Amino acid sequence: MGCLQNKQILVGVSGGIAAYKTPELVRRLRDRGAEVRVIMTSAAESFITSLSLQAVSGHPVHVAEMSADSESGMGHIDLARWADLILIAPTTANTMARLANGFGDELLTTVCLATSAPIALAPAMNQQMWSNAATQANLEKVKSIGMEVFGPGIGDQACGETGPGRMLEPDDLVACCEQLLTSLRQDGPLRGKHCLITAGPTVEHLDPVRAITNFSSGRMGYAIAAAANAAGADVTLVSGPVAIEAPANVTRISVKSAEEMRTAVLSKVADSDIFIGVAAVADYRPKSQATKKFKKNDDSMTVELVKNPDILSEVSAHKDRPFVVGFAAETDDLEKNALAKLKKKKLDMIAANKVGGSDSGFGDNPNALIVLTANGGRHELPMSDKNQLAQSLIALIGNNLPA
Ligand code: C5P
After folding, report:
1. Lowest mean pLDDT: which of 111-115, 349-353, 358-362, 399-403?
2. Which residue of the set 112, 159, 176, 177 is catalytic?
3. Fewest CB within 10 angstroms: 191, 280, 380, 391, which?
4. 273 near 193, Cβ under 8 Å?
5. Is residue 159 flagged as an active site residue?
6. Residue 31: is its pLDDT beyond 80?
7. 284-286 and 305-307: which strand pairing?
8. Does ligand 1 lie within 6 Å of residue 352's CB atom?
9. What is d(CA 298, CA 288) in angstroms, rounded to the nearest whole number?
10. Yes or no: is domain 194-400 CATH 3.30.70.3340?
11. pLDDT tens profile 124-161
12. In angstroms, what is the C-alpha Rg of the chain?
């Protein structure tokens, strides 16, 4: 799987003739497994229709101004948080000038101000405009504030002139995106680290067709696995049964019961620098499992349950103990219970989230975390999309690793 698999790429389109190549670019990005959303500036609408970009991206296109309409679906802050990468292709001289000077005069420029994702520009303009001192000064400025610039190419231009200013071809832009994400990964805070993560529910069989399980979707653990990978770690994800695909470049070991999860974790723990227990491990399992399906002969039945191993505590007690992070899903006394768990399980860090209410962090819902550390640190990660939250948690882990 390439590094664009499952990446969320926001393509910005500003008003240049090269916009006719943008649908092809969107298709190429999606061919590589990326999910693409598009924002057009008002000037772009003179060059290409939103309908073409909607057809190739598979999503409604966000157009120009911020409006009640555009904010009611995915608003500018949501788009800014959603993106793993923003690529503006084409970037006109005017849009580069606006970005260089921090304007938030349209949806696209506002999203660029509000994002923590990397921003890449694919300039496209007449060669004289490209060489103009003002454009060159803006180019230096966008680079100095951390934006990447892909191209431009040199050659024949739509205006009949020849020189620098051609937008790179869609395939070349895709290659530039891959290179950028790979190099960010190599410089990431978890570069060179081995990260072991548990996710999803466990399934404890009563008989061949019935089981005790829970409603964990696995989304938080999978988002953390993807964020750890993007931060440079080698990631092994030990997962209970879930309905989601493994993130790109993450090794998944699929398990069902807590016992299977424990065996898989213990086989990898000595090689790991970081362990993050996100799985909703069943606390108890049936004492015995019937080999044949139960018959409903009696009016009631009793199932004897026995305690499952606490995988997180075992990892903490391991002689080659990694940096250990646990999760505490609590319906009440969130912080107090999380702190008690941090101490009892001898963790380095615990992420506490409230479950059970209308703001429950289960499934697709956004989530918020309070993160406590063994040395008394306390950090609040506000309610946000699970991918964003996962990135913030991974950044915190990176900052707290022993030197
Ligand atoms: O004790 P409690 O189940 O609330 O602790 C939650 C934390 O412990 C989570 O990080 C979870 O993945 C982990 N855990 C575990 N093995 C268990 C129970 C919980 O690893 N049997």
Report:
1. 358-362
2. 159
3. 380
4. yes
5. yes
6. yes
7. antiparallel
8. no
9. 19
10. no
11. 999 999 999 999 999 999 999 999 999 999 988 888 88
12. 25
